[in-house]
Amino acid sequence: MTVEKMLKGAVADSVGISVRNSVRNSVMNSVALSVRDSAWDSVALSVWYSAWNSVADSVRDQILEYVYDR
Question: pLDDT tens digit string along 11-37?
């Protein structure tokens, strides 16, 4: 094997490893961000709905109290 072939093989290996690692990292980061964003969305929606239901229940109770006290 000539030095030129060895260098070409080393470069090809290096490029292949670099591309593989880059793709793997990109996919892993994408999955991690998706999971994190989904979890945060779920928590935020849960908190928002809980707060909204609390306000709605309070308003409903005030209206019912007003109607039945008259």
Answer: 788 888 888 889 989 999 998 989 888
